[in-house]
Fold MFS transporter.
Amino acid sequence: MIWILGMAGQICWNIENSWFNTFVYAKIAKDPSIISWMVGISAIVSTLTTFLIGTWGDRAGKRKPFIAVGYICWGVFTMAFGATEFVPKNPLNIAIVVIVAADAVMSFFGSTCYDAGYNPWTTDISNVHNRGKLGAAFAAMPVLATIFGAVVSGMLVDALGFFPFFTMMGGMVTVTGILALFMLKDDPGLKARKLEAGYWRQFAGVFRVRTVLENKELFWVFVINAVFFTAFNVYFPYITIYLNNYLNMSYSLSGILQGIGLVAAIFLTLPAAGFIKRGKLASVILFAVLANVTGLLIISRFSSHFVLLIGIFGAGIGYVLMMQTVTAWVKNLYPEQQRGQFEGIRMVFAVCLPMVIGPLLSGFVITQYGVHRVIDGVSGMVPTETLFLVSALVTILTVLPLIPAGRFAKMRLQSDASEPK
């Protein structure tokens, strides 16, 4: 069930993060500001939802209802998003509001089941000894989903169009939710955890300064997450648009390039799991940052398919190892009675801030340094290689929070080693 729910969720997130943007660019308007609004609002909705539902799950001592019902509705509203293709484009502002609202509703159900339900559930059923392997699975799943999203989805969109594609993918996610109704089991040790007198007091308790001071290492890891994935969201929502409209590739070819590069990157999760188990978390993240920066620089400099593949491989290594390491790191640090609630805090740093700040940066870069192109009779701005240079610069900043996070991790591991067994 970890793999079934995880892959269905990651495929659906990949469709939202990549194909929704491509769909809007192709069918609605070639305006990067629409994508910025869509990505930013969905990130805020996702974060608030994870806080609210995560706290509810902690207090109820249940994850299954949120997972199963959430997946069913997530799929339904993915299909509904595809139907926005038929919304009248005149006036354009009305179409934009409908599209942004549809994406926000889909994000609400996606975060209810995946971020507030599924993620804490995987923490409930795992332990400190196997979270390196769990982190490897969590790192592999978005990559496999990206490969599916790039290769298979590209072929489906080329062959069928966007609406049938969104309908098929949404149906798959809904079926997964129905499956969870019958197969998923909550951790037997999961109990209702009402730490405060009421829901809202417990909800607000996580925002106290004392909470940060009691979890310093965890919050520095959250900052690492925020910086790296801000850089990621500078380029990732536009990489397919860049390959298709700036380098003139088909959806299928751009998908194959991304797919091959990312598949190769997955194999590094095996040795990385060993380093993570030995506590070499900071070292793995430093390697991930360097690989990511190198890959982005290569993508920005070359248009040869083979060299682009090397660049995508480098960026993929960074993404995969960062996901794997941070997943294991934070799950080992979550307070046991507030796992769902702390998923909400993680969402602030891993989703909300990156998906608001990243697209704002990209929108500025594309507007200032993009090129005008007429595509399908419509004039618009197309991203250029500058986008990847800016992303590489932001990625380098990840090293700054890595220094204190690594220091706190070293102190914790030394303290654990000195304690009597």
Notes: DSSP finds 17 helices and two strands in the chain.
